[in-house]
Amino acid sequence: MNKKIMLVLITIVLLSCNFLFPADKTPVQAPDLADLTQSASQPNENSTSALPGFTVVRLHPEDGDLQAMLANEAQKADAAGQIPIVEFDATWCPPCIAIDTAIESKNELMLKAYAGTYLIKLDVDEWGWDNGGFQDFRFDAIPVYFKINAQGHQTGEVIDGGAWNEDIPENIAPVMDKFFHGTS
After folding, report:
1. Which end of the chain has less Cβ packing within 10 Å, N or C?
2. Residue 137 has what pLDDT?
3. DSSP 105
4. Distance between CA atoms of residues 6 and 79, nearest Å
5. Lowest mean pLDDT: which of 56-60, 100-104, 117-121, 135-139?
6. Given pLDDT bands bounded at 50, 70 and 90, which one contains residue 130?
7. 132 CB contacts (<8 Å, ≥6 apart)?
8. For residue 130, what is the DSSP state?
């Protein structure tokens, strides 16, 4: 019986110490990629996010006609001297999450790979992906990246998440660097 009382008292003292003398560590929250990407048509707000060496913009169906928006964003990319890339992704997609996490954490390999790009993100769930693509974009896996020209039309260059093995920056970055820049 005395052992039980002593155990309860020790537990209470330990919990009290933690409450009375909390650790001085302030939690650090990683930046959220959702905060870095915004709707292209939000009035009075910057539609793009300039990340180190590249730009990210997210388009939504309610923003307007996709082809017109792609042409507009491609012209912005051209004016900025960046390569316009369309990315179809989803919030539930493991490779998409891995890529976003690596970018959010400012992984050097990923930042180098994405340098000089203007990433136009489209969520397949928002845009009504039919497992065969969307409008003129044909694909059967995500994430998928399409290079587009200054008029917002596909160049024919495309890559998807099947191009690398495990979803880690060491595998993703060289493949994306080669796709974006023709280097490895």
Report:
1. N
2. 87
3. T
4. 73
5. 135-139
6. confident
7. 138, 139, 140
8. -
CA gap 143, 123 in Å, rounded:
10
DSSP symbol at 61: G
Beta bridge partners of 33: none
- C-beta separation of 57 from 73 below 8 A: yes
CB 96 within 8 Å of CB 143: yes
> What pLDDT does 30 receive?
34
Q: Tell me the pTM.
A: 0.72
**Residue 54 in tokens:** 């590249």
pLDDT tens digits for range 48-101: 554 558 999 999 999 999 999 999 999 999 999 999 999 999 999 999 999 999
How many Cβ atoms sit within 10 Å of the Cβ of residue 56? Answer: 22
d(CA 133, CA 38): 23
Within a 13 Å sphere around the CA of 168, how many CA atoms are in the beta-carbon half?
3
Q: How far is CA 71 from the centre of its chain?
A: 21
Q: Please state, rounded to an integer, the average pLDDT across all residues of the chain.
A: 79
Q: 34-40: long-range contacts (C-beta < 8 A, 24 or more apart)?
A: 36/104, 37/121, 39/63, 40/69, 40/72, 40/73
First to last CA, the chain: 69
